[in-house]
Design goal:
heterotrimer, A mainly alpha, B alpha/beta, C alpha+beta, B: alpha/beta, D-Maltodextrin-Binding Protein, domain 2, 2 domains, 5-stranded mixed β-sheet, 40% helix, 19% strand, C: alpha+beta, Rossmann fold, OB fold (Dihydrolipoamide Acetyltransferase, E2P), 6-stranded mixed β-sheet, 9 helices, elongated
Chain lengths: 295, 271, 354
């Protein structure tokens, strides 16, 4: 009796610390992932999340409602959402064929074309804006033709959509092209032998198979379009309700009302988080339906 | 399965932390030159280094002034930082190491005095600026005066009301009784000028100094009523500067005859 | 619709001519790399030949001249359906929608296509699976749906690429039966490794080796009188090859053997003798050969390999093998390298012209 109890007592003083860390270690560290990898990952996540926390801590919560529902704020948010949605639609309409061509065909110069198509990803947005200006501006490459046709792009909401599409398109193309390569062509070959024309194959087989990647690519594009600033400023200008998107509104409010700027920044962050979360959910549910659980 | 040595995660964490600290150290070091700790010898040649935070519209003039100052006082060095006035205020409020600050309007300077970062009696007006119309050299819309800007077929770009040049624009509109419907309200006068030089806008409201600096790329059209909306530029030493004497000397330099000469030549008006 | 096919593909050393009569099912046998998949790919339109022609009824599938130019129908225009080892059911569609895919692609209305699909599911005995997703199907079930899908497209030619290869031994017979029913009146080409498929499904057999046809004919004929070692292996027969003489066949490797039908072979012509290993006897051989068994069809050889096969052991020598009970193997002290005599009765073997 006694040796057992002393043994137990000794065990309980010696083991608790070890046992609890082992238990919590078993719960928090998945098997196969080295603990140091988790540590670095935590550091990286903190690096990303800490500024958001800092932002939230500076919000003037008392005035938050008033700041966020002012005329200019509502106009800016509405414009941002409208233009971002439109830009995302353009990205899908243009990006899907681009991704399909890059993934499914082979032609001379394809590598070069792919690099160029992804250029807006690395280009500073202001540079992108300047380039768009020299293309679609009044004295631009195409702008002069548009002027004679009576179509003005500069200082219009169209310019905002163009700028957003330009910077967001590579996200969709990149995301989708990778998925198309992974999925492979076997299903498409089968569909063809069953008598489906290429357009039918694309519509009923190819695109449904890469739907999760399409959705996530569209979401990335939307988020990029929503946050677009430099190209919009340089190319489209800034006028309430017409071209002053939320990022531009925040930039302006900084001059006189930092509280408003912070409040609107938080709104932008929340909208982005909501959109990404929704689309992630949508992507997962479509993905589950198509995943095979082994044959 | 052997457990990884306990030291490894701690070591990695420490390394990462050290790296982060090193980065912040580097960052702060690059923003400004190390301020010399030597006290200035009274009466004898000044030495040391100061950092001057100035509004963006003072870029060319203050760069020249800094060179002149360094030539007049060998052994000194003036580091310049240019930004929008509200950005300058934000940075100084968050602890940026400025010794002298020159803003493009009195409202922003007032924020600094209210916060006690600048002595309440310290700011001195050293220049004024008025608005003018800038048009592309070919003047495609045929603008001749301020009233033309209100025409619907003239694409006019102005500063947004929240920035100093925008406030001046509103004042001029009131003085002339003309209300402009702009195609864009930019957040900085540089962007307004940019829209005019690129040919996107038919006309823009900018400062006379901007037109002077732009040279052949724009033509200026004077606005008589602009005198009723003068933008005043104050300059002051920052309260907790390391080198009060050198800062004071620079401020006096700017408000003195050499400084005023450079400013006048650029198109600024008398304070 | 009759299929007439002739094509060359230099890169793979492929040069094949093939004719399939209307309603006939041809099994294509051959070792790996023989060109079986190439044949199917050329027929389906997934690969373009260097030169050749193919016609399905009145429809020209491709007509490529010596310089590689000429028309070739795209896969969806050929009326050729393919079924692979892997069912490749579209993961995002239900079983019914999968089967209805062919008719829908042809422009048939949804209701009509679904009805048609339902009929086919019934024929392959898979009606209960109509609403399931492919992820919820077992391998055998998926293959049955895939058969229904290929046939619902009403193809003029059906291609099957080792359809049973990925299935469990227990599940394969059911599918084989289904295929036998649906292929009864279809023009089809079945690529297979399994002799049982050839017997069950095919009217004719074609043997491919190294991109060329080495044998073709009615199933029984090819598999009872194989002309190549590979075909013999498939048919589980020993094959001895030589030149016909007045008394039988003088083997290339030396020795004379004879079998049923030897009289019918022209003297001097190339001939083969085939015998089932189970009917071959093996005894040890002394160096001086004094213990040579009496009778015809006795060949000297050395044991190359012993291979357990169920309750027998296959004693393999060069060219011949014998299936012997393990006890006998032990009693005779047979092991690789041991000199032996193989012998078989003439009535147990078949001799025929090559």
């Amino acid at each position: 009796m006694t040796p057992a109890s002393t043994g137990a007592a000794r065990r309980s003083t010696r083991w608790p610390a070890r046992r609890s860390t082992r238990r919590s270690a078993r719960r928090s560290v998945p098997s196969g992932v080295p603990p140091w990898v988790v540590a670095v990952a935590v550091l990286g996540s903190t690096f990303v999340l800490l500024p958001l926390v800092a932002l939230a801590s500076r919000v003037d919560w008392a005035d938050f409602g008033a700041l966020v529902t002012s005329d200019s704020s509502v106009a800016a948010l509405g414009l941002s959402l409208r233009t971002s949605v439109t830009a995302t639609m353009f990205c899908v309409v243009l990006g899907v064929p681009m991704a399909v061509v890059l993934a499914r065909t082979e032609f001379w110069g394809q590598q070069v074309l792919r690099s160029l198509v992804l250029l807006p990803l690395v280009l500073p947005p202001v540079v992108g804006g300047i380039a768009l200006l020299y293309t679609f501006g009044r004295r631009g490459l195409l702008g002069q033709t548009f002027e004679t046709l009576g179509v003005t792009i500069a200082f219009s909401t169209t310019a905002v959509v163009l700028a957003q599409t330009f910077v967001a398109l590579p996200f969709l193309v990149l995301s989708l092209e990778g998925a198309l390569r992974t999925v492979g062509t076997r299903y498409e070959a089968v569909a063809a032998t069953l008598g489906a024309r290429p357009t039918t194959v694309l519509r009923r087989v190819t695109l449904p198979l890469v739907l999760p990647a399409l959705v996530s690519g569209a979401v990335l594009s939307f988020a990029r379009a929503l946050g677009e600033f430099g190209a919009t400023l340089t190319f489209a200008g800034s006028l309430q309700g017409v071209t002053r998107t939320l990022p531009l509104e925040i930039y302006l409010q900084r001059e006189t009302d930092p509280d408003a700027a912070v409040a609107l920044s938080l709104v932008l962050v929340v909208v982005a988080i909501v959109v990404v979360a929704l689309a992630h959910q949508a992507g997962r549910s479509t993905g589950l339906a198509t995943r095979r659980r082994g044959s | 399965m052997r457990r990884a040595p306990k030291a490894l995660p701690t070591l990695t964490g420490a390394t990462a932390l050290a790296a982060a600290l090193a980065l912040t150290g580097c960052a702060s070091a690059s923003v400004d030159a190390p301020t010399s700790a030597t006290p200035p010898a009274s009466g004898s040649a000044l030495a040391g280094s100061i950092t001057v935070y100035a509004a963006a519209s003072l870029t060319t003039t203050f760069t020249d002034l800094a060179d002149e100052f360094e030539r007049a006082h060998p052994g000194t060095s003036v580091e310049l930082t240019f930004a929008g006035s509200s950005d300058l205020v934000t940075q100084i409020t968050e602890g940026a190491p400025a010794d002298v600050v020159a803003t493009a309007d009195e409202k922003n300077m007032a924020k600094l005095t209210d916060a006690g970062l600048v002595g309440s009696a310290a700011p001195e007006d050293f220049a004024t600026n008025v608005l003018t119309i800038a048009v592309p050299p070919s003047n495609p819309a045929g603008v001749t005066d301020f009233a033309d800007l209100a025409k619907s077929d003239v694409k006019t770009v102005i500063c947004a009301a929240q920035v100093p040049c925008g406030a001046a624009t509103v004042a001029v509109e009131k003085a002339t009784g003309v209300a402009i419907s702009p195609v864009s309200e930019e957040a900085s006068v540089t962007d307004v000028l940019g829209k005019v030089t690129s040919g996107e806008a038919d006309a823009g409201l900018v400062y006379v100094t901007d037109v002077a600096a732009a040279g052949k790329s724009v033509t200026g059209i004077a606005v008589p009523e602009a005198d009723q909306a003068v933008t005043t530029y104050p300059i002051a030493p920052v309260a907790d500067t390391d080198d009060a004497d050198l800062a004071r000397t620079f401020v006096d330099f700017v408000t003195g005859s050499t400084g005023q000469g450079v400013l006048r030549a650029a198109g600024f008006g008398a304070p | 619709m009759t299929l007439e096919f002739s094509a060359v593909l230099e890169a793979r050393g492929f040069d094949v001519e093939l004719t399939v009569a209307e309603g006939e099912t041809v099994a294509v046998l051959g070792p790996n790399g023989a060109g079986k998949s190439t044949l199917l790919a050329l027929l389906a339109g997934l690969v373009r030949p260097d030169r050749g022609t193919a016609r399905l009824g009145e429809r020209v599938l491709f007509d490529v001249d010596g310089r590689g130019r000429g028309p070739a129908l795209r896969p969806h225009e050929r009326g050729v359906s393919m079924l692979a080892q892997d069912a490749l059911l579209f993961p995002h569609l239900s079983a019914l929608d999968n089967v209805a895919f062919g008719p829908r692609s042809a422009g048939v209305s949804r209701r009509e296509a679904d009805r048609h699909a339902g009929d086919w599911l019934d024929r392959v005995d898979a009606t209960a699976l109509a609403d399931r997703r492919p992820a919820q199907l077992s391998g055998g079930q998926a293959q049955r749906i895939a058969v229904a899908r290929a046939l619902a497209a009403d193809p003029d030619l059906l291609l099957l690429d080792e359809p049973m290869a990925a299935l469990d031994v227990s599940v394969a017979p059911a599918l084989r039966r289904t295929l036998r029913d649906v292929l009864a009146d279809r023009t089809a080409v079945v690529v297979t490794h399994d002799v049982l498929d050839a017997f069950t499904l095919a009217d004719r057999v074609v043997v491919l080796e190294a991109g060329r046809v080495v044998d073709s004919g009615p199933t029984r004929a090819v598999l009872e009188r194989p002309t190549t070692p590979f075909a013999a292996g498939l048919a589980a027969l020993d094959l001895l090859v030589g030149t016909a003489t007045a008394d039988g066949v003088r083997l290339d490797g030396g020795g004379d053997v004879t079998g049923r039908g030897a009289d019918g072979v022209t003297v001097g012509a190339r001939a083969a003798v085939a015998v089932r290993p189970g009917l071959v006897r093996v005894v040890p051989r002394a160096h001086d050969g004094v213990d040579r068994p009496s009778g015809p069809n006795v060949l000297a050889s050395t044991v190359v390999d012993l291979e357990p096969r169920g309750d027998l052991v296959r004693v393999r020598g060069a060219g011949l093998s014998a299936d012997v009970p393990p006890a006998v193997v032990a009693a005779l002290d047979l092991s690789p390298g041991a000199p032996v005599w193989f012998s078989f009765a003439p009535d147990d073997a078949v001799a025929y012209a090559l």
